[in-house]
Automatic annotation (TrEMBL):
Transmembrane domains' residue ranges: 50-71, 92-109, 115-136, 148-167, 173-193, 231-254, 266-289, 301-320, 340-364, 385-403, 409-427
Organism encoding this protein: Novosphingobium jiangmenense
Pfam families in alphabetical order: MFS_1
PANTHER family assigned: MACROLIDE-EFFLUX PROTEIN, MAJOR FACILITATOR SUPERFAMILY (MFS) PROFILE DOMAIN-CONTAINING PROTEIN
Positions in coiled-coil regions: none
Protein name listed in UniProt: MFS transporter
InterPro entries: MFS, MFS_trans_sf
UniProt KW keywords: Cell membrane, Membrane, Transmembrane, Transmembrane helix, Transport
Length: 436
């Protein structure tokens, strides 16, 4: 029996895995249903569509930047299982608000005045929900798992997350928006029930006073990570990776509609390919490293990712225009001569990305003391979210400067070079630590 198979049969891992999976599914079902509906049914301008997609991404990310320090303190100083139950109960209320916005938009009732603000408010609240859940899902692993199980557990969580993203993305592109509204509320209810099954995870340090000043506490958390060079380098490398990912995810819906003349189902297919690839990469790197936490393959992985992004740009650039024609459905799109190369490029981007980022997350939970893991994850979330907000602003700025959406892909390819350099520095720090 493999370590992964063994873990999914245990109560110390399975309820957390299911709760995380349902949360990621719900995030993506809701967010993609909202973005795809607005892009394809409300706006009719590439710039407006790209701007809305970027605003939605920025709102979801903002709480990670502002509240991660508080979330990390709570997770390390309070019972993690109790926090999970509170957070998942809040998700039910949030999805009731978001679901109402989706239904109002479907009915055409005050779409821009009431429906869209309600949807964006719920998206912001889901960002808060994920901010408080994020440190727990990784910090609880070394507390419940044995030392040789942490990398496998991290890989399963990452793979499960992207499988859930895959499922939520598929449904968002294919089911009616009013059905999605009911689906997000139902999923939140099931997630709350699974979260109640997570075993207790009491704090490993004595309770300390919580610093509610988000700026000083955030700075203190980030500064503390510099004590561990491997952890700090991993955080910076992960941040560049997610900046690239943010730019790509923002571009997919307007790119599919305006460059490829494809329907929202095809935009959903793009996100599906990306999610499948990340899951494949997450499991592949665990097999290559045989359970050892190492950045050995990270520089090469992200260079390959950049090559595939550049290739994806070239395929999009050569894609024939279809002026005046209806948007292509999935079957029509797949029949295009360049469709298979396009999808293979997407798959390559994601596989390489998964192989790059999973070992880096494992550094965050194995290098520091178990009593500091949640705060370390929180520091990572702060830096990641800041980088992702910058990525969103770059996308908005490039669109405002009339840079074609397809040419914005080259920004992601260039940033992969920086990520490779950071991955190399991390590997050097890793080898230095082992030699000491």
């Amino acid at each position: 029996m493999t370590t992964s198979t063994h873990l999914v049969r245990t109560r110390r891992f399975l309820p957390l895995f299911v709760t995380q999976l349902l949360g990621a599914f719900n995030d993506n079902l809701y967010k993609n249903a909202m973005v795809l509906y607005v892009v394809y049914s409300v706006y009719n301008s590439e710039a407006a569509e790209a701007r809305f997609s970027a605003i939605a991404s920025g709102l979801f990310i903002l709480p990670f930047f502002l509240l991660s320090a508080l979330a990390g303190q709570l997770a390390d100083m309070r019972d993690k299982a109790k926090i999970i139950r509170i957070v998942k109960a809040c998700e039910i209320a949030i999805m009731l608000v978001g679901g109402t916005g989706l239904v109002l938009a479907w009915m055409g009732f005050e779409v821009e005045q009431i429906a869209i603000p309600l949807m964006l408010a719920a998206l912001l609240a889901m960002g808060v929900h994920s901010t408080f859940f994020g440190p727990i899902k990784y910090a609880i692993l070394p507390q419940h798992l044995h030392e040789g199980e942490v990398l496998a557990g991290t890989g399963l969580v990452e793979a499960g997350t992207y499988i859930a993203i895959l499922a939520g993305t598929i449904l968002a592109g294919w089911i009616p928006v009013e059905v999605a509204a009911g689906g997000v509320v139902f999923t939140a209810l099931i997630g709350y029930l699974s979260g109640r099954q997570v075993p207790p995870a009491p704090p490993l340090v004595e309770a300390q006073k919580i610093d509610f000043n988000v700026f000083t506490s955030s700075w203190r958390l980030i500064r503390n990570t510099t004590r561990h060079r491997q952890v700090f380098m991993a955080i910076v490398a992960i941040s560049f990776f997610w900046t690239v990912g943010t730019v790509l995810f923002i571009q997919f819906p307007p790119l599919a509609k305006n460059v490829l003349s494809a329907s929202k189902e095809v935009a959903s297919l793009f996100l599906v390919m990306f999610s499948v690839g990340i899951a494949i990469g997450s499991m592949s790197i665990n097999a290559l490293l045989k359970g050892t936490v190492s950045a050995r393959y990270s520089p090469a992985s992200v260079i390959v990712m950049g090559v595939f992004i550049a290739a994806f740009h070239e395929v999009c650039d050569y894609w024939p225009a279809h002026p005046g024609m209806p948007l292509m459905d999935v079957s029509t799109f797949i029949a295009q001569p360049l469709a298979v190369p396009l999808l293979l490029c997407l798959l390559g981007i994601a596989v390489a990305g998964g192989m790059f980022v999973v070992p880096l997350y494992a550094f965050l939970t194995t290098v520091v003391d178990k009593s500091e893991t949640a705060r370390t994850i929180a520091a990572n979330n702060i830096v990641n979210s800041g980088a992702m907000v910058i990525g969103s602003l770059l996308a908005v700025g490039l669109s405002a400067a009339s840079v074609a959406i397809v040419d914005q892909l080259l920004l992601g390819a260039a940033m992969c070079v920086v990520s490779a350099w950071l991955g190399y520095l991390l590997y050097r720090a890793e080898k230095a630590a082992k030699a000491a």
